[in-house]
Amino acid sequence: MTWHTGRLCGFDLETTGTDVEQDRIVTACVVQVGGKQPTASSTWLADPGMEIPEGAARVHGITTEKARVEGQPAGEVVQQVVTALAQVVLSGIPVVAMNAAFDLTMLDREARRHRVQPLVDSVGDTLRVIDPRVLDKQVDRYRRGGRTLTDLCAHYQVTLDGAHAADDDAIAACRVAWRIATQYPFIATMQLGDLHAQQVGWAREQSEGLADYFRRTRGKEHQADGVRAEWPLIPFQRDGEA
């Protein structure tokens, strides 16, 4: 059996913004699909403890007021999400996350902020991640157009019922990963450990290419320094570390 025909775990966050070091989790989803078993989904709404900018609220539909009234305390949500993912990883199921380095780094920083044991400390080197964004860029390098989840769903003919809702995005990411593996057998037949390791290298090459593009493009040179090549998680650096 190839990995894409087995159980997959979609993971997605909606947040207050795009700064993994400063922004906070608003909603989260951990959903298990496939493997000839029923879909099992868990979702959370957190009170992030800060104002949700209007721009972010327009994207995911959660206002500061709604989060404060209906959300759980952020620390409780982070603990529950980390626990759910750890159980999945330790059972050998890969985590499917679109642009994984963002979501997993955000969760890592929130865990440290709320004194929750980070996922990487809980599962060690057993973590296996499937990132549709990295896979798509590798198998179809020169395709024009965007590479957002919405773009990939359109390209791979995957239904996206509600873009920027964490549960819909998590399921769609799993479907896109399945489509890529179906269309590209060399992806499907890799062992999960090998595929994870390959994605580390592919993500680095893709990031270096993007940074080089910024350096060569007038008006975008300043963006090159902000491109990070680490995948699937930007390592945490304590104050004073280089």
Strand order of the largest sheet: 4-3-2-1-5-6
Beta-strand proportion:
5-15%
- Low-confidence spans: none
Number of strands: 6
Secondary structural class: alpha/beta
- Helix share of residues? 40-55%
CATH topology: the name is Nucleotidyltransferase, domain 5
Gap from first CA to last CA: 44 Å
Alpha plus pi helix count: 10
Average of per-residue pLDDT values: 95
- So what's the CATH class? Alpha Beta
What gyration radius follows from the Cα positions, in whole Å?
Answer: 18 Å
Largest sheet: 6 strands, mixed
User: CATH architecture, please?
Assistant: 2-Layer Sandwich
Number of domain modules: 1
Overall morphology = globular
* Series of secondary-structure elements, N-terminal to C-terminal: EEEHHEHEHHEHHHHH
CATH superfamily: Ribonuclease H-like superfamily/Ribonuclease H
List key phrases describing it.
single chain; 242 residues; alpha/beta; Nucleotidyltransferase, domain 5; six-stranded mixed β-sheet; 10 helices; globular
